[in-house]
Amino acid sequence: MRRLKLLLVAALAVQCAAASAEDGSAGWLRYAPLADAQQYRMLPAAVVLLDHSPEVQSAARELSRGLGRMLGHPMLEGAAFSAMPKFVIGTVTEVEERFPQWKPAVQLKPEGYAIATVRDGQRTDWVIAGADVRGALYGAFHLLQQVAEDKDSASFITTSSPADQVRWVDQWDNLDGSIERGYAGRSILFANGGVRPDLTRAGEYARLLASVGINACSVNNVNADVRMLTPQMISQLARIADAFRPWGVRLAISVDLSSPKAIGGLNTFDPLNQQVIAWWNKKVDAIYAQIPDFAGFVVKADSEGQPGPSQYGRTPADAANMLARALKPHGGVLLYRAFVYNHHLDWRNPKADRARAAYDIFHPLDGKFDDNVIIQIKYGPIDFQVREPASPLFAGLRHTNEAIELEITQEYTGQQRQLVFLVPLWKHILDFDMRAGGRYTPVKQIVEGRSFDRPLGGFAGVANVGLDTNWLGHPLAMANLYGFGRLAWDPNLMSSTIAEDWTRLTFGNDPHVVSTIDAMLLSSWHIYEQYTGPLGLGTLTNILGSHYGPDPQSAEHNGWGQWIRATHDGVGMDRTVATGTGYIGQYPPAVAQRYESLETCPDDLLLFMHHVPYTYRLHSGPTVIQYIYNTHYAGAQGAANLLAEWETLKGRIDEQRYEHVLRLQTYQAGAAIVWRDAINDWFYAQSGIPDEQGRVGYHPNRITAKSMRLDGYVPVPATPWETASGGKAIACLHRGVCTASTTFTRPAGSYTISVQYFDYRQGVSTFTLLLNDVIIATWKADNTLPGNTISGDTSTRYTLSNVALHPGDVLKIEGQPNGGEPAPIDYMEVTPYSSSR
Ligand code: GCV
Q1: pTM
Q2: Can the peptide bond before residue 720 be classed as cis, meaning omega within 30 degrees of 0?
Q3: Rg of the chain on CA atoms, in Å
Q4: Which among 201, 293, 337, 483 is placed 20 to 30 Å from 673, CA to CA?
Q5: Which residues contact 591 (CB under 8 A, 6 or more apart)?
Q6: Confidence of residue 2 (pLDDT cuts 50, 70, 90)
Q7: 374 CA to middle of ligand 1, Å?
Q8: 766-771 and 810-816 as β-strands: parallel, antiparallel, unpaired?
Q9: Residue 837: what pLDDT?
Q10: Residues 678-688, buried b or exposed e (16+ Cβ, 10 A)?
Q11: To the nearest whole percent, how much of the chain has pLDDT over 90?
């Protein structure tokens, strides 16, 4: 007889949930007690499983846990409760056997689900039926999220199937526990050269992923470590697979193509060599022996120093098919990345163009890839910039499976210190109609396999969650992970729907909270684009280092090919067929025509496609240079507005997350000013054309630090120059404490005082602001920004509002260096209080 379980745990959980801190660890699966639980009294209080797979058991436990907490009563679990109204969870086949009168309203695709009620005599049971066991799990999560969002119970009855089969996240975790482009702590999976002993977080991560339908996770950096394929590592990886399995998340790994040579004792890794082929076959068999549901490999080859088939004169198809054939008998797939390019391009050559690379290399191979190969294509032709056109390769492969690669981790979009909700960016690409063959072929339907009748396709998202309690650092960044999963399931969802669902699940259903956070999320991409790189310029960040602060010059005059070709006269890459690199010719004719002509090229991609004079007038009215100036002011104002919007939530959400986001939005509002001034000053220096509105280079409220009375402080250059006033800041290099003072000469009144300083990753300097030798503020430079130099990476603002000042008052900043951080300061800005916001 089956074990009966009364889940008193759920009752306890109800109490714990109320008391537990809102530290973000629960993500969007908070299951907060509902204000009006009564509305769901028709839902059963018992769960019966028809299937005892790990996935269905997880589904039942999750239902008990979630409904128990939200509705405030324990759930009963087990066959003994069959006579009660109950949830019945299993596969469609199992449910049909139990209720012969029932069948799903529509035919489900693999991993789809149906939620329905079934009358059984006097009783109404609720059926959660999956096309397979994963589908049942997804159905349970769906129902729970509907309840958490206070949705009308009538809408619970539904069917849903995923658009895409490949719904993977990638982690770029290294075996030492670091994460390439990770911004939320160290790896939840690896440490000290191996898999972490404690994989609790890995299991919790898989649960979050499953709740939005993610079905696989590639766990290591695509710059893969050859040790991933040693026998010892394979056994350790099996432990990760075990942690993922209850949530239907299959394990995948990235592999280094040179492994047969590097660790296999062969003297070659030529993909056509018989010994190499045999080595991979054996290796793959060994993996499946320990991980029977292994999902497959991800490959980065011939890219940024990674070895690849070109070394032997072989093509990506040769390499991909060799691996795919090893995986095929086990049902595995191979995701081969199209991110293949030469990073030693000759920048002097006007025809050289990194954006061309993926199409030039992969288009000729179309049709040469095996059926279990999927070409993983970054959304744009460069590298996850704040705006790029859709990669032309999406339409360039019609006989090959494709997946779109999106970057959830905010490498070029603020690194989770700044709010950028990426779903609208992704939607923009997914909805873009490539006009392949002259018909409607949006990217979303191409990767789904629908446009060109491909058997496989989907989404890969670089997530890079870390050990930080809240997974991604910025509490609002979790909307990106959530949104990625939702779009991979249904790319037709609107950004606003995803934003609202996530907000309700994460912060509750208070209408003001929901509308405020939704508005913040939905405006954030455009704001970030405005104050970084508009008009298709790319993010304009330091591309040679941190990928964080402003540094447009770093894009130029090197082999990386992220050029913006800014000269004294004009700016932009000429990618036209007529006079440029010919990149535009890679698009199907209708799209190519639109981009080729200045008449029809959209403003927001103008400088990606064309080189134009600064005085060129945009469709929207202003000249290019004036638009750059204007948008940077608008963007900085937008970032200030995000902060003001967040402040309206005080007291309406928990203090812990309120304060955390408040700190980050305060920082972002300051960072946006740094970006605004750096980019505008740089373009002013390039073009020599002044801002029509007289703002650029003119800061009447600013007192540069180097012009203050300095005691101990010395002027030092900023790199790049545009990230500090006149290229210089001050640093306290030789003393324990230094000061910078100024005498206030403006009319008496109430003012906001901002101090722009530099907060290195190392050290925690202390700053003290004194008014007539009385301390009015003190703070520590304790942020973990990416850099230990005076630059836009580290420039930070401290603001004190509503200070009464009189002519003759002395304002003094005292800086106390610490740990190699010399308490550097850029300027003090004193703005009349009423106009400071
Ligand atoms: C894993 C960008 C990133 C690299 C990353 C690469 C890739 O260039 O900066 O860190 O390497 O993309 O996607 O392979």
Answers
A1: 0.97
A2: yes
A3: 28
A4: 483
A5: 392, 395, 433, 434, 435
A6: very low
A7: 19
A8: antiparallel
A9: 46
A10: bbbbbbbebbe
A11: 96
